[in-house]
Amino acid sequence: MSERRLAFFGGKGGVGKTTLAAAFATLLASRGERTLLVSTDPAHSTGDILDAELSGEPERVGDDLWAVEIDAAADAAAYVEKIKEDARESVSPEVLPTVHRHLDLARSSPGTEESALFDRFVDLIALCPQEYDRIVFDTAPTGHTLRLLTLPALLTAWVEGMVRQREKVAGMERMLRNLAGEEGSGDDPILRRLRERRDRFHHARHRLLEDATFYLALIPERLPIEETARALATLAGSGVAVGALIVNRVLPEVEEGEFMRARLEQQAGYLREIEERFRRYRIVRVEQDARDITSRRQLERIAERLAAAGLR
């Protein structure tokens, strides 16, 4: 079994991340590894390719294979409701309605869905290896995914600052209560929650650095190549391991017609560029199928190609 148990498939939109993630999850399950396939892409085509009705909770879709499609909007709503519950414990009744109004506005604010998605992501990786041996993430287009992967470091530092500020405030509150001769419970729900979140973020960052592998999907065209180069630079800076670059939809060498010859000539140039620019990384080629990928048998054929290339 691979030393790293979390696999992320990312890349520019439309390069076939969902197909490759599903094929890789199929490969792992075929080896007897309990595998969870997680779709964080808002487009959610994982259920279509597996021909299964998926929800926000893991559904069994085959032997040793489960799948889940995360609904970021629903998770964001639950996330805001959870914060409201926390506020009821720590905010005075007079201020509570104002806090609730601000939280309702925050529900549709930039970053709320991202934070909720990250919380769900932390919950899911906690299921490995107890419930699942491996988890495969079919992610959103590259930019969104890279922001998600850098959140643990950013949020850990932010929460650390919040904890320090809250500790100062809590110390002042205790001093004032002592001067007034009042007794407090000694439990600060806000500080407790902040410490819990700090520990969660720290653990998530550790798992990403020590237990995750990122697979970048691309096709032999200019824009995906450039986006892959930017993604590799970001991943190198964040310390996340790159398992391989998977060049998808490679046209087979069939000389038929002027159009096809021109496409193959262009593809050959891009393939040479990929090999040269990304020679530090393992590169796997997956040929274009003659038909849309809509069946388990097609996924199994792609899984066989990934296995032959040594992906684990």
Describe this structure in words.
This protein has a single domain (6-77, 108-308), classed as Rossmann fold (3-Layer(aba) Sandwich), CATH 3.40.50. It has helices at residues 17-30, 46-50, 72-90, 96-106, 112-125, 142-179, 189-211, 222-238, 257-277, 296-308; strands spanning 6-11, 35-39, 59-62, 65-69, 134-138, 212-218, 241-250, 283-287. It contains 10 helices and 8 strands. Helix 8 (222-238) links the parallel strand 6 and strand 7. The protein has an 8-stranded mixed β-sheet with strand order 3-4-2-5-1-6-7-8, with helices on both faces. Helix 3 (72-90) runs antiparallel to helix 4, helix 3 (72-90) crosses helix 5 and helix 6 (142-179) runs antiparallel to helix 7.
Helices and strands in order:
Blueprint (H helix, E strand, L loop, with lengths): L5 E6 L5 H14 L4 E5 L6 H5 L8 E4 L2 E5 L2 H19 L5 H11 L5 H14 L8 E5 L3 H38 L9 H23 E7 L3 H17 L2 E10 L6 H21 L5 E5 L8 H13 L4
Parallel strand pairs: 1-5, 1-6, 2-4, 2-5, 6-7, 7-8
Antiparallel strand pairs: 3-4
